[in-house]
Write a structure and sequence with these properties.
Layout (H helix, E strand, L loop, with lengths): L2 E8 L6 H6 L13 E3 L7 E6 L4 E2 L6 E2 L7 E3 L6 E8 L10 E5 L15 E5 L4 E4 L2 E4 L9 E8 L17 E4 L2 E7 L2 H6 L2 E2 L4 E6 L5 E4 L2 E2 L1
Antiparallel strand pairs: 1-2, 1-14, 3-6, 4-5, 7-12, 8-9, 9-10, 10-11, 12-16, 13-14, 15-18, 16-17
Length: 221
């Protein structure tokens, strides 16, 4: 619909917070954005909000199950520089099913398989096919039920780049189902136009008992 929604929480350090809470004149009026901040979880989990609704999360949000067709889920934390690694254990993979594991930027389409567009990079369980921008190439052995797939991303620091997290405090707040969200205009087309290869970046995968294999160079805006 042309907009993105970022889950918000009350900012305990916001200026004039007490005055606003105690003012009867503000009752029933929109909450100013500066009183909230983007929610920052203390734990690394699968995101309940940042996923396709067809994906079911476990109660502890450490595992997921997909149904019917390919779609995507992301975690509740992102990375922008340095080397980061996570492991995924395939606990159930019925005959005829497949999965893709990898990394997605914020504009990657959640209603499509990871690697469908230029914002996602993945390796598929079937035949070990790597995908980026819907181009597939069989690169290594696949993985299946019982396997553990390690995923490593390496992002060199860009000199002069601001790595502080975005505050969104200048954005309007929207209330939906008892939660507050910052509303931000979708700039996917602009981000796509500005994508460029990031020198020194790479994504590598390691299946249980195998060696690291480099699969991708990364595009960043």
């Amino acid at each position: 619909d042309g907009y993105r929604y970022i889950l918000a929480e009350a900012d305990p350090h916001a200026p004039h917070k007490q005055e606003f809470d105690e003012s009867s004149e503000m009752a029933g009026k929109p909450i100013p954005g500066f009183l909230c901040r983007a929610l920052v979880s203390q734990s690394l989990l699968l995101s309940f909000q940042d996923r396709a609704q067809q994906i079911n999360l476990s109660e502890d949000r450490l595992s997921l199950t997909g149904y019917k067709f390919y779609c995507t889920a992301r975690s509740n934390h992102s990375v922008s520089r340095g080397a980061w690694f996570f492991e995924t254990r395939i606990t159930d993979l019925p005959e005829g099913a497949a999965t893709r594991i990898g990394w997605a930027q914020k504009y990657a389409n959640l209603q499509a398989p990871l690697g469908f567009d230029k914002f996602g990079y993945s390796v598929r369980s079937k035949k070990g096919t790597k995908f980026h921008e819907s181009h597939g190439k069989t690169y290594s052995q696949g993985y299946t039920e019982g396997d553990v797939l390690g995923t490593l991303i390496e992002l060199p620091e860009i000199r002069g780049r601001d790595y502080l997290s975005k505050s969104y405090k200048d954005k309007p707040l929207i209330k939906f189902k008892s939660h507050l969200y910052f509303e931000e205009k979708d700039r996917q087309a602009e981000a796509l136009k500005n994508l460029k290869p990031l020198p020194g970046s790479k994504i590598s995968f390691l299946k249980t008992g195998n060696h690291w294999e480099r699969h991708f160079r990364i595009y960043m805006s």
